[in-house]
Amino acid sequence: MRRPLLALVVVLAAIGAFTGGLAWLLDTPKPRAGAPKAERLYLGLCATCHGPDGRGSWRAALFLVRPGKLHDAAAIEQRSDQYLFDIIKHGGAPIGRPGMPAFGSTLSDQEIAELVGYVRGLSRAR
Ligand code: HEC
């Protein structure tokens, strides 16, 4: 009589630990209160792949995606604002770099322009 109940409790606890752990692993950092819009957009949409600091996320590595190095000043300095804008708006596919998704239908041009500034800030911070 007690055994099935115990088994049920163990199974439920295991499922809880598994899903909770998964949620913890896949969560991205929450933006600080009053963070500028670009920072909230970046942490919400981009950090899953690029990591909160632009160094690339291990979650992306898990899916064999190589999100570039947004924190690397030497690499980002060489990119024009237009290049950064276009790759965020249209994705990497048009220029043969299909790993980067397009955000043109999610974000306004204004938001993309703010993200360009935010991405530049990531490489300047270090
Ligand atoms: C699904 C994962 C993913 C998401 C989400 C994502 N990116 Fe990317 N991004 C990539 C990958 C992969 C590359 C590199 C593509 C390549 O080189 O083939 C990349 C490249 C870039 C580049 C070009 C870097 C360079 O030096 O050429 C910029 C800028 C960029 N991403 C910004 C963003 C921004 C801003 C967001 C959020 C709006 C974002 N990405 C969301 C995967 C992602």
Question: What is the structure about, briefly put?
Answer:
This protein is mainly α and 126 residues long. It contains six helices and no strands.
Could you please describe the fold and organization of this structure?
Helix 2 (37-50) packs across helix 6 (109-124) and helix 5 (81-90) packs across helix 6 (109-124). The chain is built from 6 helices and no strands. With 126 residues, the chain is an all-alpha fold. It is elongated and about 70 Å long. Bound molecules: heme C (HEC).
Superfamily (CATH H level) name of the largest domain:
Cytochrome c-like domain
* Global mean pLDDT: 86
Task: Sum up the overall morphology in one term.
Answer: elongated
Number of domains: 2
Uncertain stretches: none
Give me the secondary-structure category.
Answer: mainly alpha
CATH architecture label name of the largest domain: Orthogonal Bundle
Q: State which percent range the strand residues make up.
A: under 5%
Quickly name the level 1 CATH class of the largest domain: Mainly Alpha
The distinct ligands, each listed once, are:
heme C
Distance between the termini: 62 Å
Helix percentage range? 55-70%
**How many beta-strand runs?**
0
The SSE order reads HHHHHH
> Largest sheet at a glance?
none
